[in-house]
Design brief:
This protein is of the alpha/beta class. Helices cover about 30% and strands about 25% of the residues. It has a six-stranded mixed beta sheet. The protein binds inosine 5'-triphosphate.
Length: about 200
């Protein structure tokens, strides 16, 4: 069997890498920027998912040959006017602190009747410094009255997808990766790549 093409994820979030590897690992050999300490830290100065995904993908693709994929994602809660949205990672006041993010979500949702929410994922694909495509995925659901479960990451203990009664963190990775915003965006990406020659592209 020929070697799988290499794909570098423009993320420092190990959970994203693990999920993308589980979903896409049969098509690409996947690493992320944590394996390349000389690559620059990309500032997410955009105000939309697509702007930030583009900044991350192009910021890394300038420095490494081959395929680069960035994931910008977040939780939108209707009762909070779409917050935390693009700022999901630092909602609790400290970048990437999931415990603080969840604590703030609990606080803000206290007494709210409308619990509807969704996760969004935007994937930006680049190759050799060129923009190749953008792919989107959304999963609708609601915010649980109480957080529960140990699986997944981020807001997974709070998010109950439509059609279920328990949060993603309790449903486990197989279920999450079959229905998540990230799984749907990856599915759009694989559909796009289906008829392409990955070496010549
Ligand atoms: P990189 O920018 O390095 O990829 P990050 O975690 O900072 O990592 P984002 O800026 O895209 O990535 O922020 C995404 C945040 O949205 C993430 O930290 C979580 O708080 C939340 N999030 C995204 N996808 C999620 C998922 O599948 N489950 C739970 N929370 C998620």
């Amino acid at each position: 069997m020929s070697e799988l093409p290499k794909l570098i994820l423009a993320t420092r979030n190990a959970h994203k890498t693990e999920e993308i590897r589980q979903i896409l690992g049969n098509k690409f050999s996947i690493t992320d920027v944590r394996s390349f300490p000389d690559l620059p830290e990309i500032e997410e100065t955009g105000t939309t998912f697509v702007e930030n995904a583009r900044l991350k993908a192009m910021g890394i693709s300038k420095h490494v040959p081959g395929w680069v994929l960035a994931d910008d994602s977040g939780l939108e809660v209707d009762a909070l006017g779409g917050a935390p949205g693009v700022w999901s990672s630092s909602f609790g006041g400290e970048e990437g602190n999931h415990a603080k993010n969840n604590a703030r979500l609990d606080q803000e949702m206290a007494g709210k009747e409308n619990r509807s929410a969704r996760f969004r994922c935007t994937l930006f694909l680049a190759k050799d410094g060129r923009e190749i495509g953008v792919f989107y995925g959304t999963v609708e659901g609601r915010i649980a009255a109480e957080a529960s479960g140990e699986g997944g990451f981020g807001y997974d203990p709070h998010f109950i997808p439509d059609g279920y009664e328990i949060p993603l963190a309790e449903l486990g990775s197989e279920v999450k990766n079959s229905l998540s915003h990230r799984a749907k965006a990856i599915s759009a990406l694989t559909e796009f790549l289906e008829d392409k020659d990955l070496e010549e592209f």
